[in-house]
Amino acid sequence: MAGFLIAVISGALMSVQGVFNTGVTKSSSIWVAAGFVQITAFLTCVVMWFVDGRPEIMGLFGVQPKIALLGGVIGAFITYTVVKAMSGLGVAKAEITIVISQIAVAYLIELFGLFGSEKKEFSWLKLLGIAVAIAGVVIFSLCGNTKES
Q1: In the chain, pLDDT over 70 holds for what percent of residues?
Q2: Alpha-helical runs (H) found in the chain
Q3: What is the pLDDT of residue 137?
Q4: CA triple 77-80-86, angle to 5 deg
Q5: pTM of this prediction?
Q6: All residues at 6 or more sequence positions from 107 whose CB lies less than 8 Å from its CB, including other chains
Q7: How far apart are the C-alpha atoms of 1 and 7, rounded to whole Å?
Q8: 3-state secondary structure 105-138
Q9: How many Cα neighbours within 13 Å face the side chain of 42?
Q10: pLDDT value for 60
């Protein structure tokens, strides 16, 4: 139950962050906004590191595979793509599309056991779930194009 609640909070924070970052971009540029996000995230992590009892930093050098250290680089591009999606599609349409993409890619990662994840068996039901979610995005998008009185 705690994992589910944390996931809901995470999704809500991502949506709010995307709106905030899009607003910051309007006053500066997308890379300035992305840089600010990364710097403030770093400062928050430093503060939380002190609060958390200063766990060992040198463990970073033992991370395997080394490609796993690219999370920050990916984070910068996540900020960029969320801002571009929100400014191009609007908040709701961008977020629902992003979430469906996350689900589909996460399923592929599990299905093939990529990046050290546990390999899972193929499930037609999960594939159907993704297809239904994609259909939901299409319906959601079509509803945005109609005028209601």
Answers
A1: 96
A2: 2-27, 30-51, 71-89, 91-112, 124-144
A3: 87
A4: 135
A5: 0.81
A6: 126, 127, 130
A7: 10
A8: HHHHHHHHCHHHCCCCCCCHHHHHHHHHHHHHHH
A9: 11
A10: 87
143: Cβ–Cβ under 8 A, 6 or more apart, which residues? none
For 117, residues 6+ apart whose C-beta sits below 8 A from its C-beta are 109, 110
Tokens 């503060």 -> residue:
47
Three-class SS of residue 13? helix
The angle at the Cα of 17, spanning 69 to 57, to the nearest 5 degrees, equals: 30
CA 149 to chain centre: 35
Tens digits of per-residue pLDDT, 85-141?
Answer: 999 999 989 999 999 999 999 999 999 999 888 999 999 999 999 999 999 988 988
Q: What φ, ψ does residue 56 adopt, rounded to 5°?
A: -55, 125
Report the alpha-carbon distance of residue 100 to residue 95 in Å, rounded.
9
Cα–Cα distance measured from residue 95 to residue 82, given in angstroms and rounded to the nearest whole number: 8
Say how many residues make up the chain: 149
Please give the angle made by the CA atoms of 27, 47 and 18, to the nearest 5 degrees. Answer: 35
148 touches 111 (CB < 8 A): no
